[in-house]
Amino acid sequence: MGKTNISLSGRDVLALKDFTAEEIRLILDTAKEMKKIIHRDIKKVPTLRGKAIVTLFYEPSTRTRTSFELAGKYLGADVVNIAVASSSIVKGESLRDTLYTIEAMGTDAIVMRHKAEGAAAYAAEVASPVILNAGDGAHAHPSQGLLNLFTIEEHKKKLAGLKVAILGDVLHSRVARSDIAAMRKMGMEIHVAGPKTLLPRFWQEEPGLVWHDRVEEAIEGADVIEVLRIQLERMKGGLFPSVREYARIYGLNEERLQRAKEDVLILHPGPMNKGWEIAPTVAYGQNSAIQEEVQNGVAVRMALFTLVLTGGKQA
User: Fold this and answer.
1) Does residue 10 sit within a domain?
2) pTM (2 decimals)?
3) Burial code of 142-174, b = ≥16 C-beta within 10 A, e = fewer?
């Protein structure tokens, strides 16, 4: 990493709209160094030795929770996972009291996922440990947005000027919100398409976004396509006729993919509804970086821990 005067020491990571392009660049450059550690035979450095990290997930997660846990352990921290289903939360303990309890144990950082928008910001107000938002409702998922940028830059060797198409359920997607916030800061051209019922109307006046009625128009000449998961668990029904109809009109399949650039990069935050928003042949095809995103998530989360807990000093 090059020298920089930017410091994220002690910084809560709540939403990418709070970060400058220079700060995002620092995180991405740090993640490059962190990825080298993942490829070692012995994946252990003492950077966070003596630090305590707690993951607190009120919603299910495989990729995000596990990658945050591994990121902390690879850096030498002590990491404890709180399983909400077997904690005092099921007895009615409030979020505030849970945070106070974790804080009282000398924790340095809390990685938190919650179904309510703004929960991470609330946690940052009431608790002293650094808060890393692992997803709060449909609001933000900053580490996912960062790992998407990291993956794109690895393949395309740049970010500025790339055309990105974001497809599908934008309305319920915290990933889309984080992506759009970060991609605009990094000079990327963003095109959005999906059912009108799943596109937030209040965003359509935002600068730097191009909205399309048809998926085909959005992906024409695209360098990157991000397919969003249909979030049935957040829907109340009636937003599109049927899954079959959605796949026919909006799903990314081999035929539609031909409209993008030949070396287009395919992303998906996972888990995938294969055959719905994305065809299996596309999900596992040569243009897909979906599995790479998982590995890059560990590197990006290692970078975040290093920067917010040590100021970027690596042991």
Assistant:
1) no
2) 0.93
3) bbbbbbbbbbbbbeeeebeebbbbbbbbbbbbb
